[in-house]
Task: inverse folding
């Protein structure tokens, strides 16, 4: 398959890059000095695009690659891919579900514990020598707190399972009620927010879910409520969240994703009830390798005319 | 009961102090109106109860100097700062605060394990110092599915096991004797436990037998990919050995809530990235500290009313 042109949208994983290089003719889009010239020159040889959560395949790129057959995303989220256009043109799309479910759910729980128990702040307290001068402040118990989940898909369910082990009552909001679960369903996000202590965003980003956590939801969550976002930055109205945190109208937040990564609102940096992570939901050695293998497996299957492993379109 | 004299050994919780003050004749050992020797000369005979905690309990000297001491009520579940033998000898009752703090301590154990494995504090620092603009951090380690070894399968150890199971972790444990009614794998030797798990969590009481139960051999068995979590007592771990293992990369990482000489923490650890250090906060939440305080008060009241103690240590 060495003659097959594959375009990698941005740096994502050295192992994946190496393997793609071995098996295909790999073009690294971020190393190209003149992107439009590049596309014109190579448009007929590029048959696959490998994207991720930062950079996928938008309408412009799809239009520029007439021989594009498949977009394999190194992510489970598809918000950076123009799915409608792919469908229209018969371009296959694959992502990396399941292999990253546990890591993302683990991180959600880690963020809840870090925010409520102020783990990072108390670690800083020790390291600065302040413990010699006095005890750290009291924090907030996690066990038994009501957890509200937006989106009860694979990741949402994995979060629920973990939170249950901490005796957290679980409720959720999603497009439709999942009758096969025993968790309490709320038909509106505002109602969910009003009835939980910790609100977790775990849905996919679509036009409907953009800013699903808005001022109303933040107000409903309230001064003792905590927001955890392990979905996508645009799920949350970021300026509203920032002012709510700065004005202490909300109890705290644990955020792994932001509207304009890697930019993070600096007003959050000094807050002791906020934990900020650089989009590391699936960022473990084990999971990134599994994701890379899935991308490679999907590409190989496609070019060998075998069924795709994790097709979306 | 305002004429009953109670001695509080150190500051623990304002709410507890106020409650004790309103119900008893409270003496605060850290805030005496006279020198300590004078205080003991004048008041030792009247003191019927001591309220201690994990920092200052009731050691042999104190017990000897309080001839009318009837009860030691500890604001903790750990009893390592109380001379239990002496209390037994003299018929002094001892109470502690089990159960009410089990969940908080177990939560912290899991929180520390996640923080270490997923580099949560490192990442938070990275973002808050504005460094994300310059590039990503390296990859962390997956927590789900890892094997967890628990030293001490009491209330707290079992609560940790229950939570870990939800992350599909394989659970094994070491304790003085095998526990019936669990499905977890038992190791009669702690070195074997350490050799067969990736995350070793210390959750046992501190006694003469468990002092330095995590020693060089155990640390070596846990190895360069292993993580140690200590939510028990600092003295359960040979601290200098732990420090050198971390500095030399012979241990993969550690999450530590307790130290041999609190509030002193080995400063060589401050620059170590794969370590999370917290200031003995296992039960330090608003909810739990109040519940612990209420339990101390209830035990004291029960004792002085001649009623059964709520949480006596037998």
Result:
């Amino acid at each position: 398959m060495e003659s097959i042109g594959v375009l990698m949208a941005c740096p994502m994983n050295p192992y994946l890059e190496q393997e793609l290089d071995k098996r295909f003719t790999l073009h690294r889009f971020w190393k190209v000095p003149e992107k439009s010239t590049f596309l014109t020159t190579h448009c007929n040889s590029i048959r696959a695009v490998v994207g991720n959560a930062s950079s996928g395949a938008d309408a412009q790129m799809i239009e520029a690659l007439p021989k594009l057959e498949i977009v394999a995303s190194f992510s489970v989220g598809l918000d950076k891919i123009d799915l409608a256009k792919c469908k229209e043109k018969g371009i296959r799309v694959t992502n990396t579900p399941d292999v990253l479910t546990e890591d993302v759910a683990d991180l959600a729980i880690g963020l809840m514990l870090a925010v409520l128990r102020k783990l990072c702040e108390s670690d800083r307290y020790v390291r600065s020598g302040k413990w010699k001068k006095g005890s750290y402040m009291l924090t907030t118990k996690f066990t038994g707190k009501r957890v509200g989940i937006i989106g009860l898909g694979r990741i949402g369910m994995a979060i629920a399972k973990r939170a249950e082990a901490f005796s957290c009552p679980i409720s959720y909001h999603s497009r439709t009620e999942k009758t096969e679960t025993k968790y309490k369903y709320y038909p509106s996000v505002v109602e969910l927010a009003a009835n939980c202590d910790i609100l977790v965003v775990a849905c996919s980003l679509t036009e409907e879910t953009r800013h699903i956590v808005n001022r109303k939801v933040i107000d409903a969550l309230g001064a003792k409520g905590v927001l955890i976002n392990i979905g996508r930055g645009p799920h949350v109205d970021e300026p509203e969240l920032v002012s709510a945190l700065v004005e202490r109208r909300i109890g705290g937040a644990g955020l792994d994703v932001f509207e304009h990564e890697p930019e993070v609102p600096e007003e959050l940096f000094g807050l002791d009830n906020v934990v900020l992570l650089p989009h590391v939901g699936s960022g473990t050695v084990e999971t990134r390798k599994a994701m890379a293998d899935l991308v490679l497996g999907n590409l190989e299957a496609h070019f060998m005319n075998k069924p795709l492993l994790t097709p979306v379109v | 009961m305002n004429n009953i004299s109670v001695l509080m050994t150190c500051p623990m919780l304002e709410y507890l102090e106020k409650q004790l003050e309103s119900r008893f004749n409270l003496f605060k050992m850290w805030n005496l109106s006279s020198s300590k020797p004078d205080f003991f000369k004048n008041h030792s005979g009247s003191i019927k109860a001591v309220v201690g905690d994990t920092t200052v309990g009731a050691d042999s000297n104190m017990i000897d100097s309080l001839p009318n001491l009837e009860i030691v009520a500890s604001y903790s579940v750990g009893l390592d700062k109380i001379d239990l033998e002496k209390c037994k000898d003299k018929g002094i009752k001892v109470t502690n605060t089990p159960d009410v703090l089990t969940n908080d301590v177990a939560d912290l154990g899991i929180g520390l394990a996640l923080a270490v494995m997923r580099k949560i504090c490192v990442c938070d620092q990275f973002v808050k110092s504005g460094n994300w603009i310059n590039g990503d951090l390296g990859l962390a380690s997956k927590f789900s599915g890892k094997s967890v070894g628990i030293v001490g399968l009491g209330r707290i150890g079992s609560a940790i096991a229950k939570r870990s199971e939800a992350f599909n972790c394989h659970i094994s444990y070491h304790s003085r004797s095998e526990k019936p009614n669990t499905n977890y794998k038992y190791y009669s030797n702690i070195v074997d436990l350490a050799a067969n798990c990736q995350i070793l969590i210390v959750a046992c009481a501190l006694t003469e037998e468990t002092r330095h139960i995590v020693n060089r051999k155990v640390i070596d068995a846990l190895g360069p990919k292993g993580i140690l979590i200590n939510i028990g007592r600092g003295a359960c771990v040979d601290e200098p050995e732990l420090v050198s293992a971390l500095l030399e990369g012979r241990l993969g990482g550690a999450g530590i809530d307790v130290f041999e000489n609190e509030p002193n923490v080995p400063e060589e650890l401050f620059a170590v990235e794969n370590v999370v250090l917290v200031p003995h906060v296992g039960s330090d939440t608003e909810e739990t500290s109040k519940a612990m305080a209420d339990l101390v008060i209830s035990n004291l009241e029960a004792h002085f009313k001649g009623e059964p103690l709520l949480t006596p240590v037998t």
Observations:
- The first strand of chain B starts at residue 5 and ends at 8.
- Chain B touches chain A through 55 residues (CB under 8 Å).
- The longest helix of chain B spans residues 286-304.
